[in-house]
Amino acid sequence: MSLVKQLEHVEIFILWSTIRRYFRYHPIPGVRGTHSSDGQNDSVYSDAEEDTTPIITTVNNNTNDSNGADTDKDMDKEKNRSTTTTAVGQPTICTTDDVIGEALWRLLLSNPNIKTLDLRQDFLFFRQLLHQSPTALQCIQSVTTQLVQGRLPVLPPNTLKVEANNVRFSRYSREDSPGPVNNSVEEVVVRHVEYLDQLRQVLFQAPKLKKLYIENLALLDTTIVHEEGYDDGGEKALEKQKEAELEAEAERTATVSGVQVVRCNHLHRQSTTGLERLFRMTPHLVEFYNSGWTPGYASILAENCPLLEVVRIVSPRYATFLERNPKNPIVDTVSPLLTSCSKLKVVDIQYELVDAKKVKEKPWVCLGLEKLRCQFVGVPYLTEKEQVTMDRMLAREKMEKEQESEDNQHRPSIPLQRTIPTARSKEEEELHERTRQATEIRRQVLGQFSKLTRLKHLTLSPDLKITDFSNADMYALIYRSKKDGQHYINYGDVRPDTLHLRLDCGLDQLATLTDLEYLAMESMDPQMRAEDVEWIAKHLGKLKEMRGLALDTHVGMEDDPEKDALRGLLQSLRPDILHTESLGRH
User: Fold this and answer.
1) What's the whole-model pTM score?
2) Which of 217, 369, 434, 577 has its CA 20 to 30 A from that of 116?
3) Distance, CA of 515 to CA of 518 (rounded, Å)
4) 472 pLDDT tier (thresholds 50, 70, 90)
5) Can you give the residue ranges of every domain in the chain?
6) For 269, which DSSP code?
7) For the stretch 388-404, what's the b/e string if a residue is b when 16 or more beta carbons lie within 10 angstroms of its beta carbon?
């Protein structure tokens, strides 16, 4: 290995079974690590029967008892093994993986240009050598390794990025001493995290950390006393109570981190509480990315992260592929961010809701917002039957006014008995009031938009095409048109309780959005008319793309001549505006 001297990247990935089977090391008899030479009693793990490797832990993780036994043995092995040194202070080579670790050390020393070190296994001998020579391997900047007892191991002095694999297979205990502090580390990637305290340890060991990436996060709530109806004799309850006290103490004494970017992926539902507690240690957080969102996130981020600028959910939940029922209660999971985080620039939470009725309660403070993607729902609306009643009432009142005006025009000098207009019924009064409230709510929301003068991207609803065409239930969406008798698809995404982009609903307030380049409204009916389209073409001079003005180009949708005419009008007035439809989750 020492003959290779021009390496820049080293990756060691050898299955432990391969190491034990094909690279056997026969130490001097009497030295720890000696195994039978006849091979009859040896397994593939005989050289390192005490190793804390992912392979061994995986083999034994089917039963909790075997896991506990391995954990105790791992602890004893780590203590015993760490004291096995020669008279001159060098560790003794006792096993096959020690030989590989020592060879790896020589390889790295002979290649001063190595920048990246990828170790899929944990070589204790290599760690001991690095611990004894902390200034060695100064050229290495990126390391892939495993957590040792739930903590970062000793790292080369100039390491900037660390990837920690298989965290869930790393034995972890609160009572273990803290790991070494690495002042140069700025970026950490951890996978398969189960305990919040493991993240606390990472933040403590990397005080200069700026970016924390968490993949396959599944935090376990160790503070739940016991499940309802489960009788454990009180022992489990006492253990959980003690764990809750330790967790509370750890949270009080946790080190505040300077981490600025947190990115999570594959977040499990049970991880919510733990991740929210993590935010209390990251007051300097600027960017947060995740693959899931819960109601508690907005409040806890708003409370603990005043410097927050970017919130982006990179993929929707499975629930977003289901139709939202406008009659269900609305859980507003976005407003706390808009009303508390003044430095926000990006809120990309397309599948989360804002209760439009409550927008007037507290003004938005994120006046520098440049991108906003969420749903504004909860506007009072009329059903088709109620709309027919409302239209009939309006037509009747219009006809009565026209008749009265005509009578006054033709016979102004003859006093006539004033025609008493038909009184509205109780139902008509209720429908009229609901319509008035809806118009006022829409004006209030558009009024808030008008204050976001730096806004460039505005998405008011999810993309339309979210139907699962592979599902047999899709056939329930097919209907026969009354116009031509043909069959079409009703996507079922367009909800009635959304915004209307009309001048009588406050569209003219958006004249302040002079930087707006993108406007999307696919899963809503904006109820636009020709005068509304003309206003957009005239006043939104930087607009480059619009989605949702006409949707009949989607697969299987029935033609809508009125909306096609609106789109044609916009294209004639502003041919520079691209009108597209989403192909998925963009």
Assistant:
1) 0.77
2) 217
3) 9
4) low
5) 1-140, 149-280, 384-390+429-579
6) G
7) eebeebeeeeeeeeeee
